[in-house]
């Protein structure tokens, strides 16, 4: 479903939201019948906003992201987005028989970019993610962090206004993850993208987002949300990041205890 348009001050039409999730529930068939995974979720993501979805494993974060991406349909409720979102997974999902540049060009080709323009655009995207000169490198020649940068460039090649990220840095070491936090923040600020980012890492959520939404489990419901007023650039070890992380962690622990998770 298409998003609603509003008039800007200069009279141009702009989207009211990058994503609107309205009273969404999702059930799956199980041995004991239908299992409710998400229950009455409502979230608006404003244009240019960075929102993190936080929660324990099994709370339905990835399920919700897949619904927003259009990979599945909700059992109830509606989801609207400003155009088709781009999706970035925890695994880079690059084609190993293609170079870094050709992986990006594939996304450009699917978007309808003329063949003669693809290499230039792919190289520009590699430069944006600070991989200038990596166009001809094969996937096995790239480190884990470099592979995720290529995956990010490929997602950006879709020129979507909404980027969906499903724990994209979870498998990386702490130093590489910290560097990619900086890169993602820079790219978000430079491009004006809206980002909906799934994580179970509280400090990562606070480090990146303007707003943190905590999902409870079994079924996933919105337990609480926080507006993060800490100015960027942030570091994961900054005192305000640590303080808010402690507060959110206590609420998350309470949700885990309440639902009998370990």
Provide an overview of this structure.
The protein has 262 residues and is an alpha/beta fold. Helix 3 crosses helix 4. The protein folds into two domains: 5-85 and 160-258, Rossmann fold (3-Layer(aba) Sandwich); 95-159, no CATH class. The radius of gyration is 19 Å and the shape is globular. It has seven helices and eleven strands. Strands 7-8-9-5-10-11 form a six-stranded mixed sheet, with helices on both faces. It comes from Streptomyces dysideae. This is Sulfate ABC transporter ATP-binding protein.
What share of the residues lie within helices? 25-40%
Q: List the secondary-structure elements in sequence, H or E.
A: EEEEEHEEHHHEHEHEEH
The radius of gyration computed from the alpha-carbon positions, rounded to a whole number of angstroms, is 19 Å
Please state how the strands of the largest beta sheet are arranged side by side: 7-8-9-5-10-11
Pfam families: ABC_tran
GO molecular function: ATP binding; ATP hydrolysis activity
Keywords: ATP-binding, Nucleotide-binding, Transport
Domain ABC transporter: 19-244
Features of the shown structure:
single chain; 262 residues; alpha/beta; Rossmann fold; 2 domains; six-stranded mixed β-sheet; three-stranded antiparallel β-sheet; 7 helices; globular; P-loop_NTPase; ATP binding; Sulfate ABC transporter ATP-binding protein; ABC_transporter-like_ATP-bd
């Amino acid at each position: 479903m298409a998003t609603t348009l509003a008039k800007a001050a200069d009279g141009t039409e702009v989207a009211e939201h990058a994503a609107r999730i309205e009273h969404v529930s999702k059930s799956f068939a199980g041995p004991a019948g239908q299992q409710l995974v998400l229950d009455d979720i409502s979230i608006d993501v404003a244009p240019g906003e960075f929102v993190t979805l936080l929660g324990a494993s099994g709370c339905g974060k990835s399920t919700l992201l897949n619904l927003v991406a259009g990979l599945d349909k909700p059992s109830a409720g509606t989801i609207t987005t400003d155009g088709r979102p781009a999706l970035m997974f925890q695994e880079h999902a690059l084609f190993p028989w293609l170079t870094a540049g050709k992986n990006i060009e594939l996304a450009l080709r699917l978007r309808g970019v003329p063949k003669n323009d693809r290499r230039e655009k792919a190289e520009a995207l590699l430069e944006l993610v600070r991989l200038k000169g990596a166009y001809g490198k094969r996937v096995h020649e790239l480190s884990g962090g470099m592979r995720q940068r290529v995956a990010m460039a490929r997602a950006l090649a879709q020129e979507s206004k909404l980027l969906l990220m499903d724990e994209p840095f979870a498998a990386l070491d702490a130093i590489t993850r910290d560097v990619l936090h900086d890169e993602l923040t820079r790219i978000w600020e430079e491009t004006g993208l809206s980002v909906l980012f799934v994580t179970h890492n509280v400090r990562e959520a606070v480090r990146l987002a303007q707003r943190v939404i905590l999902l409870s489990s079994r079924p996933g419901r919105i337990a609480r949300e926080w507006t993060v007023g800490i100015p960027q650039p942030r570091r994961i070890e900054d005192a305000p990041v640590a303080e808010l992380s402690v507060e959110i962690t206590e609420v998350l622990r309470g949700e885990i205890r309440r639902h009998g998770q370990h």
